[in-house]
Every structure is written in C-alpha cells, then in structure tokens.
Automatic annotation (TrEMBL):
InterPro entries: L1_C, Transposase_22. The keyword Transport does not apply. Keywords: Coiled coil. It comes from the Eukaryota. It comes from Ameiurus melas. Residues 1-66 are annotated as: Disordered. This is Transposase element L1Md-A101/L1Md-A102/L1Md-A2.
Length: 332
C-alpha cells in the first residue's frame, strides 16, 4: 500500500510545481485595457464561469485564473488523489477487519485458556486437598509404626539376651552331660565292635586295668557307614563312674600311643563342636608356653586357659587375649 501511494504522491508534487509556475508567471502578462465607460463590458461565458468555480472539496490553488491545460492537469490530479484515497480507505478497512478477526480469535483463545486454567486450578486444589489428607493419615500411621518399632526393638534386644543366655546354658548342659564320655578312634568297623562289653574289654587290655570299667552305653558316631578302606567311625562310650573316665583320660595322655590287640588307638574327651573349636584355638598359645621357662598352663572345663607364671595366675577364654599376654612373658 505504501508503494502504491508513493507514485501518485510524486506525480501530485510534480503537477503542483508545474501549476505553481504557471500561476506565478501569469501575472506578468499585460493586463487588458479597462473597458470604456461608453462600452459595456462583455459578459464571460457561462460555461467557463461555472468551471472556474472551485469545488468545496478541492483546495484553492491560486487566486489567478489558470490556463486550460493547467486546469485539466489539476482535475486529473484531483481524480488520482480521490482514487488513491479510495484505495487507502479500502485497504484500511480490510486491515481493520483483519485485526478485528485476529483480536476476536485471540480473545476466544484467551477465554478458553482462562476457563481451562480455572478448571485445572480446581482439579489441582482438589488433588492437593486429597494428598494432604493422605499425608496426614500416613503421618498418623507412621507415628504408630514408630512406636511399635521402638517397642519391638526393645523386645528383640531383650529376647536376644535371653536367647544368648539359653544358648550358653544349653551348651553348658550338653558339655556337662558329656563329661563322662570319651571318644575312641582307630577301632575298625565290624559286628560287635562297639558294644559295651567289647569296648570295656578293649579299654582293660589297652591301659592294663585290673578290671573292666563299667560303661552305661557305647555307639559309633552318627555318620554314614564308611566304605571298605575308608577311615572307621569313632566310638563314643559313657562311663558309669566319673572317676573311671578321668583315670582313662589321664592314662591316655601319659601313654601317647595306645596299643591293643595289634591296634593303635587314640582316646579323647567328648566335647561339643563349639567347645572343641574353642579349646583348639589355644593350641598355638600352649605351644609358645612350652618354650617359656617357669610357665605352667592348663585348660579347665569347658574351654578356659589358665596360665601361672611367677606365682601370678590368669584365666583366659579368648585365644587372642591369651596370645597378647604370652608375648609379654617372652624374654627380650
């Protein structure tokens, strides 16, 4: 639209300049002689007087009378201006219509967005309200669970202490029930080799006893029966008198190798697995004590190492603590 209006504008200025020159040049012409008093002045033609009257919508160019060509150019200029003005109004009206349509569309979109936001706000507020209620319920439930957990923790700690005490008590009772037992290793598998009579006769021959010891019962360990050529199972026997059990174990320590009926057997105390492992942990400490002059030691029932050195007696239930103490006893 701007390019279209520039061209007529340039022609209008050019034509105005040319009309101005004509208007400024026309006064230089000699004025006609005034009419005589006796001769009447000729009346101007009616058509020219009507055409010379300016239009109310047309600007007054000059008070001087234009020539015919200038007047035609002026009329043409007015026509071009009117056409440009009509085109400008039409384009302006189209632009207004386009802007109104666009504004109406934007208003509808904004209204729809506002409605959607309002709906989303209501839904979000409802969700938040529900979540607040849920969080409140969960907080109340967690508070109750926390109290239960604290109570359960206290109960578990108490039960743990009780179970530990019971385990130690059961271990002590089992080890005490085995104090009259011994284990005999090296007796071949066979029929009537683990009866009380056979075991009593074997012990009498092995240790040179005056009479056979009284046995309550004897049996092989509870393991699968070995195949031919494999190591035989140990025999566990229980003495009726504790003194007989102590005497057999003392003789076994003194003899080191026990010969009986062309057999080489070994006799050990019958300890539980836990006590056997605890007593075996002191083996290295006992070996070191053998190299220290004046140190005496012994393992008390069930698994307690007693060390006596220079009149000082100490008991240990942990092999690590005993090893640290033995390091202090070594000279240098």
């Amino acid at each position: 639209m701007s390019g279209k209006n520039l061209k007529p504008g340039g022609s209008i200025q050019t034509k105005l300049r040319s009309g101005g020159r004509t208007a400024s040049a026309s006064p230089r012409e000699p004025a006609p002689a005034p009419p005589s008093h006796h001769e009447p002045a000729p009346a101007p033609p009616a058509q020219e007087s009507v055409a010379a009257l300016p239009s109310p919508c047309e600007p007054a160019v000059s008070s001087a009378s234009p020539s015919g060509s200038d007047f035609a150019a002026f009329i043409e200029l007015l026509a071009v201006m009117r056409k440009d003005n009509a085109d400008f109004r039409k384009e302006f009206q189209d632009l207004q219509k386009t802007l109104r349509d666009a504004l109406s569309t934007i208003q509808l979109d904004l209204q729809a967005m506002k409605t959607q936001l309002a709906s989303d706000k209501v839904a979000t507020e409802a969700t938040i309200s529900t979540l607040k209620g849920t969080v409140g319920e969960m907080g109340h439930t967690l508070s109750g669970c926390t109290d239960d957990i604290v109570h359960m923790k206290t109960t578990i700690e108490s039960l743990t202490v009780t179970v530990t005490q019971l385990e130690n008590k059961c271990e002590d009772l089992e080890s005490r029930s085995r104090r009259n037992n011994i284990r005999i290793v090296g007796v071949p598998e066979g029929a009537d080799t683990c009866t009380t009579a056979a075991v009593a006769a074997l012990l009498k021959d092995a240790f040179g006893l005056e009479k056979e010891p009284v046995l309550d019962r004897s049996n092989r360990t509870l393991q699968p029966k070995p195949k031919s050529g494999e190591r035989p199972r140990a025999i566990v026997c229980r003495f009726h008198h504790h003194s007989d059990c102590v005497d057999i174990l003392r003789r076994a320590r003194e003899l080191q190798q026990i010969k009986a009926r062309d057999l080489t057997i070994s006799v050990f105390p019958d300890y539980t697995v836990k006590i056997a492992r605890t007593r075996a942990a002191f083996n290295e400490v006992r070996r070191q004590l053998c190299d220290i002059e004046g140190a005496r030691y012994g393992i008390l029932h069930p698994a307690r190492l007693r060390i006596t050195y220079n009149g000082v007696q100490k008991d240990f239930i942990s092999a690590e603590e005993a090893a640290e103490y033995v390091k202090l006893l070594k000279p240098g």
